[in-house]
Amino acid sequence: MKMGLLVEIVFLNFCLVSWSDPTAALFNVSELFSVLSIGKTPAEKAAENTKFFLRLRNDPDADGCTFTKDPASITFCSFNVTAKTFMIVHGWSMSGLLEMWVSRLVDALHRKEKHSNVIVVDWLHRAQQHYPIAVANTARVGRDIASLIESLHKNFDYPLKHLHLLGYSLGAHVSGYAGSYLNSIGKIGRITGMDPAGPGFEGKAESERLSIDDAEFVDAVHTFTRGSLGLSIGIQQPVAHTDFYPNNGHFQPGCDLSNAYRNVATRGFFGITETVKCEHERSIHLFIGSLLHESQASLAFQCSDHARFDRGVCLSCTKNRCNRLGYDVARVRTKRSNKLFLRTSAKMPFRVFHYQLKMHFFSGPNEEPAYPSMSISLHGTRGDSHNVPLTRIETIKGNHTYSFLVHTDTDLGELRRVKLSWDGTSAWQNVWKQLSDLLPWPHESSPPKNIFLRRLRIKAGETQERLTFCSPGDTKLQMYPGVEYTFEQCQRRQIPRLRHRYI
Ligand SMILES: *[C@@H]1O[C@H](CO)[C@@H](O)[C@H](O)[C@H]1NC(C)=O
Ligand SMILES: *[C@@H]1O[C@H](CO)[C@@H](O)[C@H](O)[C@H]1NC(C)=O
Ligand SMILES: *[C@@H]1O[C@H](CO)[C@@H](O)[C@H](O)[C@H]1NC(C)=O
C-alpha cells in the first residue's frame, strides 16, 4: 500500500470516526488487511454478499421477498417485468441495521407508482466498516447490482430505462458504479443521488464517483456540504445533470446549531450525530416529500454560485433554468452539470416561495454611507408575511439598484402591498428613532442620511410574475431609520421599463 493512501485513510478515519462514534477505536490496520485479504470461510463470504429484497406494497416495513440474479427467484418473487423498478441503496452504516427512512421511501414510491417493483439493496455487511473500507467496497457492491440488472435484462428482456436507482450517501456512488458497469449493454434510466458522500469522492475522476455518464439522467440533492478540516460529509462538486443545493447545500432549516446544542444537552455526544444525520438525511426527506406532495413541488433555480442566488438574481425559468426538485424533475440532459439553488422550510413538504426584491436608492448631494438593516412585510391576496429580514449588505450607496432574495413559507397569492422598515440598530439610531417620534418631518438640519426610495420591484420565482410597488403619490421618499414605509402595487401605466443595472 502506498504511504500516501494509508495516511489519507488514517486521516479520513480519524475525522469520520471522531464525529460519528467516539467509542470506536482509531484506525485498526490489522482489521483493514483482514477485510481486504482473501481466504474467508464460505459462511463469511455469504454474509458479505449484497442482498436484494423486493418490498411488498401493503407491507413496506417487512423485508419482502429475497431474490438473486437466478431467474427462478425473480419469477418466484412475482417481479413485474412490465413495470418500473426502483432500487434503494443505503449508505455507510454504524448500526448494521437499515435506517428508518428506508421503509418511508419504499412506502412513498409505492404510493406514487402503484405497480412498480421497489427493491431494497442490502449491503450492510460491507457498509458497517470503518469508513475508508466501506468506500473501497462501493465498486464491488455496484458490480453486484449491475449483475442482477444484467440478469433481468437477459432473461426477461427487461428494459434498462425502466430502472431508477436511488442512492444515499455512499449508496449514491454505489449506484454510479452499477450504472457504469452496465455501460456495455446500455444505460439505466435514472440515478438519484441523495447527498452523495464527499470523503473519498470529492475531486475524483468521473469513473470513481457518481457522474452524468452513469445513467440516461442523473440528479443529485446536496444537503450537507460542509464539514470540518476541509472535509465535507456530502460531496460539494456537482456530479449529476441536475444538482440541487437546497439552502446552498448546508444549514438545513430545523437542523440548526441551536438544536445541536439542545441535542447534546439532552442526548450527550450522540446529539451531534443527530444533527449531522438531520442535514445529511434531509436529502431523502426532500425526495419523499416530492413523492407524497406532488402538487407542492419545490422549485429550484439555476445559478452559477450561491452568492448570486442569495441576491435573488437567479429566479428565472426561461431556457430550462428552473426545475422541480425530486421525483417529477424535468429530465434536462446537458453535457455538463447544472447547479440549481432553492430555499426550503423545515418541514415536509418543504416548499417555500421565492422573491427577488429590487430597490433603487436615490441620493442627494450630501450623502453619508448607510449601514442599513432592513426588513419587509409582504401583503398578498391570500395572506401576509411579516418582518422578513433582508440579507445584510455592507453599505447602501445612493443612485444604485440593489437586489435581495426573500422567501415566505406560505403562498401569499398576488402581492398588493409591501412595507419596508429600516431598522435602526446602532445606539444613535435608537436615539434618532425616539427623536423622530417627537419632531415633525422633514427636519431641515439633521436628517442622518440622504437616501430616497420611490419604488420596489418584485419578481416571484414560483409564478415568474413581475410587479412594481409605488410610494404614495409615486414620489421619492426620504428614508429614516425606525420608520415603516408602505408601497402599493402601482397602476400599470405608471411603470416604465427598468434600465438600471443592479449591484
Ligand atoms: C484490531 O482488529 C482485530 C480484528 O478485528 C482485533 O483482534 C484487535 O484487537 C484490534 N486491535 C485494536 C488495537 O483494536
Ligand atoms: C404489472 O405492471 C403493469 C404496469 O406496467 C400493470 O398494468 C400490471 O397490472 C402489473 N401486473 C401485476 C400482476 O401487478
Ligand atoms: C445621484 O444623482 C443625483 C441626481 O442626478 C445627484 O444630484 C447626486 O449627487 C447623485 N449622488 C451621488 C452620490 O452620486
TrEMBL record:
Give the EC number: 3.1.1.3
**What protein name does the entry list?**
triacylglycerol lipase
Q: Which UniProt keywords apply?
A: Calcium, Disulfide bond, Glycoprotein, Heparin-binding, Hydrolase, Lipid degradation, Lipid metabolism, Metal-binding, Secreted, Signal
Pfam families recorded for this chain? Lipase, PLAT
Q: Where, per UniProt, does this protein localize?
A: Secreted
Keyword Secreted assigned to the entry: answer is: yes
Q: Show which residues constitute the signal peptide.
A: 1-20
Molecular functions (GO terms): heparin binding; lipoprotein lipase activity; metal ion binding
Q: Which reaction does it catalyse?
A: a triacylglycerol + H2O = a diacylglycerol + a fatty acid + H(+)
Which residues does the entry assign to the active site, renumbered to this chain? S169, D195, H280
The enzyme's main class, written as a single word, is: hydrolase
Alphabetized InterPro entries for the sequence: AB_hydrolase_fold, Lipase, Lipase_LIPH, Lipase_N, Lipo_Lipase, PLAT/LH2_dom, PLAT/LH2_dom_sf, TAG_lipase
Which residues does the UniProt record annotate as the domain PLAT? 353-489
Q: Which residues does the record give as Ca(2+) binding sites?
A: E206, R209, D214
UniProt superkingdom: Eukaryota
Which is one Gene Ontology cellular component term of this protein?
A: extracellular space
One GO BP on record is: lipid catabolic process
Q: Family membership, please give it.
A: Belongs to the AB hydrolase superfamily. Lipase family.
Species, as recorded: Eptatretus burgeri (Inshore hagfish)
Main localization of the protein?
A: secreted
